[in-house]
Amino acid sequence: MDKYSSGRMKLFSSTAGFFTSAGNQFAGRNIARLFKKKAHGGVSFQFRILFAFTLLIVIVMGTLGAVTYWGGKQWLERYTDDRLLVSARNLSEKVDIFTTTVDKRELTRKAGYLLNAEANSFSSQGMQAQLQILDPQGKILLSSGQQDKGGFKLPGRLVATMLTRRSGLETVQMAGKQWRVAYQHIPGNNWTYVVGLAEKDYLQPISELRNLIVVVALASILATLIICAVGANKFAGPLNHLTGVMDRASKGDFTVRAGKLNAGREFSILGDRLNAMLYELGRLFGQFRDTAGELHETSRRMNRVADNQVKFALETEGGVEEMAATVENVTGQVMQAKQSSEEMMRLAGDGMLSLKTVVGKIGENRELISSTASAMHDLELQIQEIGKIVDIINNISRQTHLLSLNASIEAARAGMQGRGFAVVAEEVRRLAEETNQATAEVARIIDTIQEGSRLVTERVEEGLKVADQGVETVNLAEESLRQIDHAVAGTGEKIAAIASAAQEIILGTREAVQTVRLIAGTATNAETQVSARDIAAMAARLAAMADRMQQDLGRFNVDKQEGPEEEKINAELMPA
């Protein structure tokens, strides 16, 4: 391998190194910027990949060509300068040696031989050199060819410079060509050796290399376009498929699934994860829909329970009002008994005008007390019935409280969508607690009434005993009229006590009626107008909310059955 070929190898090595360290980094940065920009709008992904790789190849090949051409040209220029200077120095030294050893004729012959040999040396390297020996006046003494061959005719200014400087290297324009000329003084005969090379000749390899780079670059761009088009289509196909799946899912269809993607492990994993996500979303919305249905059914049940509570309260109200009327009737009878007792006392004060009349009055008194005892017994039974009804209302209140707690739990499960329902459930719970407190108050009042009734009954029973004693006293009237007088007085006092107790029973009964009206929602006081009717209205609003929730969830399709492949995917992706 000659020096010129070795230089070419060095040129290619240095060019490749420069490209690796600079050109590739520049291309990479620009492609990264290209993909970071958001100005592509509707440009397809395939085109972006194709454009990016084409731009990369253009930048790489352009950088490679520019660096190679510039570096090769610089190197060839330096190499040519060195070659010309070496030729000028060596040949001038050889000719100078001959001037001292041979005569002029032989010198001319040997100098011509050296010129031809040097010209052949340049020709062997692909360069057509022009070699001349000038005499002291600047005229051509010897030449490797014709004087004007190739347009190599030295201008006078350059010849004068050569004769003055004796050695050097010049660039000159001759016959429309750029020439590189080296010259060296030959001391023995005062000659000047001149060698010149046309720039077109010694840069011919660079021109050929440039053309080769252009051809290779075009071929590379074409190959890149083909490869990138095929690769981008294969890469973008699965992406378009996944995009279509996600588009259908965004419209509420969670039954859609991504098919098998034979575009690499990453796309397969992406498809599996997307299927798992769609499965989980479908399952979640299915649970929401089921929860909405359960909420709707629960609200309907609450509405029915509230209606039944209103119905029971209204029935209780009627019973309590009847009880109040009965108590007032009993009170009237007690007042009549009091008046009769007073009359008996008056008659006893006047004396025992007629034993028969006294016996009759005592009999009437006993019957009156007996009816009073019977009425009190009936009153006690009615009060017990009221207690049972209050127990029923209390049980309904507890059930309502439990339903409100269950509703609060379901609202908490629903998250943000159950907030409104949670407020309604809390209001229902509060109303249930107020109802429970009201029924407890009614139970307390009933206990008080029962206690008073028991006392009245005891008094009536005592009155019966006194009446019996009066009968016995009448039978023994002859023995002790004074005992009859005392017995009648005691009876009057007891009847007065019965009347007082009856008044208390009336007051308690009126309070019970007001409490039952409050529960039934028929109370006239606006400040206490929170009742079972309100609970029913709230349950109706809750049912309407559940209907709207079902309508909103109805647009999501989550009824698809899983196939074996989906079960396998979910088994791999979902924890046990």
From TrEMBL:
One of its GO terms (cellular component) is membrane. The keyword Transferase does not apply. CDD domains: MCP_signal (cd11386). The chain crosses the membrane at residues 47-70, 212-232. GO terms for biological process: chemotaxis; signal transduction. Residues 233-286 form the HAMP domain. PANTHER family: LYSOZYME-LIKE PROTEIN-RELATED (PTHR32089:SF112), METHYL-ACCEPTING CHEMOTAXIS PROTEIN MCPB (PTHR32089). This is Chemotaxis protein. Keywords: Membrane, Transducer, Transmembrane, Transmembrane helix.
